[in-house]
Amino acid sequence: MKHVSVLVPKGIVIVDTIISSLNLFQMANKFYRSSGSSGEDLLEIELVGATGEPQTYNKFFTIAPAKTIHEISKTDLIIVPGIAGDMDEQIKLNYPLINWIKEQRIQHHAEIASLCRGAFLLAETGLMNGKSCATHWLTHDKFRQMYPNVNLIPEKIISEDNGIYSSGGAYSFLNLLLHLIEKYYGRETAIWCSKVSEIEFDRTDQNQFVIFNGQKEHTDKAIKATQEYVEEHYAERISVEHLAQRTATSNRNFVRRFKKATNNTPIEYIQRVRIEAAKKKLESTTLAIHQVMYTSGYHDDKTFRTLFKRYTGLTPLEYRNKYNREMAFS
């Protein structure tokens, strides 16, 4: 029987990522027992902590590990729950777990799945260098700063790279758990768990949930001023040449500085600001789609729709129907 370790970290933890991991795998075991010939569980699932000390989260929820990392000589799958608060502090608190994750991967080829911001604990092991990783879109800038050697894939809900898995933000971790259940138990079990839990199956994209606030956690004042200019004038025609002139640099140097500071080219940044403006108009107004397009700085229908779908995963009409309350109930 294979073994699953659901970690119980210290510090600030998203409790649901622990409880739901335990519940969904137990649900999968139940279906496996009832549908199989052996009548036995497929996986042994245990809560594992750096120590046996119960951890209290949000002042109300106490979770006690069943075993410590010193009692688990070998595990097959490690679930790293989502953490919150100051990432540097959470990492310091959980270094024993981080070292154990690394040891289990290197010595025993354990598979690892980080949920939401648990990606920070996973990335701290160094095992993600050169590999793809997903995490909550709110922390993308911080993640890139801390782990520049990890290939962050912002749009994905699920990332899989040679037995190391990660999920996007918040409750998208449920989609990764279903993905793991499908891998270990089969698609029939995963679909059953999906239906019983009423979790949307096969959802892989988190673009529609992203709120673009601009990457401004940098110290380049000229680039910040350029970002603010774009955010104020997005409905107008804006060229890279004009933006470069405003910073008194050549086009080439401006593009290099802008990309270094924001992780976007100037064109990408303009597009993201405009699409975010269009999203807000679609959410809160009854303007026709072409009016939203014009007031967001676009004059070509095909370009607007292509870029909107690239950044949200939905067409403008699909987005409006999903997020505009007035239109939904009209």
What are its keywords?
Arc Repressor Mutant, subunit A; Rossmann fold; 15 helices; 7-stranded mixed sheet; 11 strands; globular; two-stranded antiparallel ribbon; 330 residues; alpha/beta; 2 domains; 12% strand
CATH topology of the largest domain: Rossmann fold
Mean pLDDT over all positions:
90
CATH C-level class of the largest domain is: Alpha Beta
Number of individual domains? 2
Beta-strand level of the residues, as a percent range? 5-15%
Structure summary, number of beta strands: 11
Specify the structural class.
alpha/beta
Strand order of the largest sheet: 5-2-1-6-7-11-10
Radius of gyration: 23 Å
CATH architecture type of the largest domain: 3-Layer(aba) Sandwich
**Form type:** globular
Number of helices: 15
CATH homologous superfamily title of the largest domain: Class I glutamine amidotransferase (GATase) domain
The succession of helices and strands, N to C, reads EHEEEEEHHEHEHEEEHHHHHHHHHH
Explained architecture:
The protein has helices at 15-35, 87-93, 95-108, 119-124, 140-146, 173-185, 187-197, 221-233, 240-246, 251-262, 266-284, 289-295, 301-312, 316-323, 325-328; strands at 2-7, 43-49, 55-57, 61-63, 67-68, 77-80, 111-114, 132-133, 151-152, 158-161, 164-167. The chain has 15 helices and 11 strands. The protein has a 7-stranded mixed beta sheet with strand order 5-2-1-6-7-11-10, sandwiched between helices. A two-stranded antiparallel ribbon has the order 3-4. Helix content is 49%, strand content 12%. It folds into 2 domains: 2-209, Class I glutamine amidotransferase (GATase) domain (Rossmann fold); 221-328, Homeodomain-like (Arc Repressor Mutant, subunit A), CATH 1.10.10.60. It is globular. With 330 residues, the chain is of the alpha/beta class.
